[in-house]
Structures are given as C-alpha cells and as structure tokens.
Amino acid sequence: MTNLRFPPFAALLIGGAATLAGCSDQPVATAPAARANASVSAAPATHLVVFRNERAIPEDFAAQVAALGGSVDAAYPGVGIAAVSGLGEQGAAALRGHGAVAFVETDANVPFDAGPRRAGPEEEMIPDAEIATTGRPGHRAVLYRWQWNMQAINARPAWEAGFLGSPDVTVAILDTGIDPTLLDSEGLVDLERSRSFVAEDDSALAALYPGLHPISDLDGHGTNVALQVSSNARHFAGVTSRSTLMGVKVCSVYGYCGFGATMAGVVYAVDAGADVINMSLGGGFLKRDCAGCVAIINRVLRYAERSGVTVVVAAGNEAMDLDRNGGYYNMFCGAPHVVCVSATGATSMGFRNSGPFPDADSLAPYTNFGRSAISVAAPGGSYKLNPDGSIRSMARVFSACSRTAMHYNRQTGELEQTICSSLPDANMLTEYMGTSQSSAHVAGLAALLVERHGRNPARIRQAIESSADQLGSSGNDPYYGRGRINVARALGL
Length: 493
Description:
Blueprint lengths: L29 E7 L9 E6 L9 H7 L3 E6 L4 E5 L3 H8 L4 E6 L2 E3 L6 E4 L26 H5 L3 H5 L9 E6 L19 E2 L2 H10 L12 H9 L14 E6 L1 E2 L3 E3 H13 L4 E4 L3 E4 L4 H16 L3 E5 L13 E4 L6 E7 L31 E4 L2 E4 L5 E5 L1 E4 L5 E4 L4 E5 H4 L5 E5 L2 H19 L3 H10 L20 H4 L3
Parallel strand pairs: 8-10, 8-13, 9-10, 13-15, 15-17, 17-18
Antiparallel strand pairs: 1-23, 2-4, 2-5, 3-4, 6-12, 7-24, 11-12, 14-16, 19-20, 21-24, 22-23
Helix pairs in contact: 6-10, 7-8, 10-11
C-alpha cells in the first residue's frame, strides 16, 4: 500500500502507547532469565489482488501469476480477492493491467504495541470447591465485585433470568490468540475451528511451548478480550458464560497485525461458521493513498453481512474526531454494516477494587468519536488526573492472564517471560483499558441476541442500539452513539 499511515490506535495513557487494539497500564514485571531466541523476520512481499467481479476469480489466474514469477498463496472467490507472493513491482504492474483486475495493493503489517499492562497474583486464594462449576451466572464469579464494567451494562438481571449464552452461538475473536487452558476459558474455545494466520507467532510458539495449539496467546490482549465476551465465571464474569469462542490469530506478539491476515481472518471466520466477529484492532490510512484497501475492507465486511455474521469493531483510542479526519480511513469503523463501539469508564476502583465506581458512564478521554461512526458505547476503563497531569485514580477491565504471555524486547529482538508465563499455575490476573474492551462487551451482547433473533445482523444491530441507555444528545450522539449498551433491556427484561 502506498504511503499508508498507521497511527497509534490505543490511548497514550500512562507512558505506554498501543498502536492497535491495546491497553496502557503499569509496567509488567518480567522473569529475568527466561528468554526465547526468537525474533521477527521481514515478511516476504505479498500483494493483494482485487478483481472486478466481487464473487469470482478467473480460472487461469494462478497460471498468469506463475508466468510472472509468483504464486497464489490464498484465493477468496466469495469476495473476489487473492493474495500472491513472489512478484516484483514489474509483475504487480503487469497484473494491474489485466482486464479482470481492479486493484493490486502491497500487503502491510499494521504496527501495534499492546503496551505495558499490569499483572499480579490475585488478592486471595480461591478454594477449588468455589470454582468447580462451569457456565454459571457471572455474578457468582469470585471477583465479580471488581467488575464495575459488567455492573455498568446491567448484565446481572439477564444472567438471573437465565440468559447465559449458548454453545451453539460462536464468537470469533480476531486478535493475538486465546489461552484455552485458563479456568475461565477451558471448554469454551473451539480449538478445531480456531486458526492462526501469523507465521512468526507459530514459529515462536513451537519453540517456546511445543505441542500447544497455534491459537495460544503469546501477547495476552486477545485472551482479555475473549474473556469479556464469554467466561466460565470462575474468577471473572464475561457477558456470557456458555457462548463458544473461536480464536482467529491475526495479530502478533512482535507488534503488528497483518492487513491481509486480518481480511483473511474475517473470511475464514465467516466460512467456519462464526455468528459474531469481534475486531478489537484497527489503524488507518488516507483514502487517496489506497483505494484498493477500501475496496478490500468493504468487500470482506459485506461478505460477512450477507452471510449472516454480526461484526463488532473498536472505535480506537486516539481521541480522534472521525467526522473530521481529512480523508483518513479508520479501520474498521469506516466499514459497512459494523457496530462501532466507543469507550466509557469509571474513574476509580474504590477500596480493594471493590467500589464505589464513580462516573461509570463517563466518556473515556482516549476514545475516538464521531456522529457518522459510533454506534454505541460500552465499558473500556478510564482515569482521573491530578492538576500536575499525573494519574490520580483509574478503573481498568480485568481478566485472567494468558499463561503464555511474553514480552517482546525490541532492543534485543527476544521474547521474555512475563509474570504470567513464569508462574503459570499461580492464577494471575491482568488489567486492560481501551475500546478493545468496549467492543468485546458488545460482541457478548450480540451473541445473546443471536439466540433470540437468529443470524440477522441488521436486526441485532437495531436491538443493540434501540435498547441502549441514552447518555448524550438525542439521536446519534457523536460520543455515545445511541447510548451505552444495556444487556437486560436488549433482551426485553
């Protein structure tokens, strides 16, 4: 892609920046002598080819690419897109001249840094007897009292009425992976349908943790996001406790999400039977620099819509006005048919993280906004500042921590263990803040609504928006959209 600009996606909150779907928190401690000699290598040049026919690829395309010295890595006839490698610029130019081809764009790794996050042991030991039940109501989670976020969206009345989700409804998490071994995630992740599109992570995982499923999360972000959607509610609640999770790894511990991998991940999730897709990732570019990128995104998201899949996306954490962005395309709130989610957040956790939780519906200062973009708002976390600009208090979104979470040391090119991976049996927790977490809450609600309305994205979007608690101006507020989601009301309670 020519002159693509991928600015920071997550908020610059506490000295850490995240460029894609991240959080910003207190620094994570690392185990000093546990390192992996695995560093990211430059990816071979790949081009994304967009055909004029949105639902077909010419039969002789592979032969044409081979004649130019390249090969077809993947073909998606349902959206009229293919990924090819081995072409130089001359070969790409030759493809652009083909009558069946609309665009040829160079694939890009969208940089991100999930940022430092805080990890530590739980405050109390949890007896095995208390965590033996799976799929239970969220308010029975041992640390539910910390979850201002679930309280803010009025989830408990839905749980008490029996709306716990269904294993027949699948939510695909396009992210850094999911740890399927945690007490809150075990049995919820469909490993047969989960897939990684990140070769570098696959290699690192095989070296560090031989035998683990490729979807295992080396970063931790995807696990936190997934557990807001669906959790066994042993430690922390998710919006649902029985919905099936499908991990689709498109983002790497090395600090990027492949654009082509992300688009391939959406198509894969649709074809693999996902009912809901959550995309707590993003970035952007100037539309004039990459018309083909817009076409690719629009085609892929239209494919999800017509296949009956509801897509929920994070608004991003740059405090950007998406109505006045000078031709900047925000991934993926600018796409058709998506639910774009801004962030709200309490500004304090209270005594021992158990409340009170003031200003739980306040707009998070980092969230992107815009009347044309934001559908609804949901909890992502927030903070208050002292007069000197230092942090006075904050509220984050908790979950269990991935046991394989690593830290990528950019100076040495090595992966280093975090507390979570160095003490895998210690029931570690982690805390995140951002619209990534907001999006996940809405994806959980969408999963509950699929049970009621079936695979009908338009109906599900309408149910989410019409039941939200209006917090801003009437109509579509630039900050809250139609309002902060209300789980119980969306289910008719």
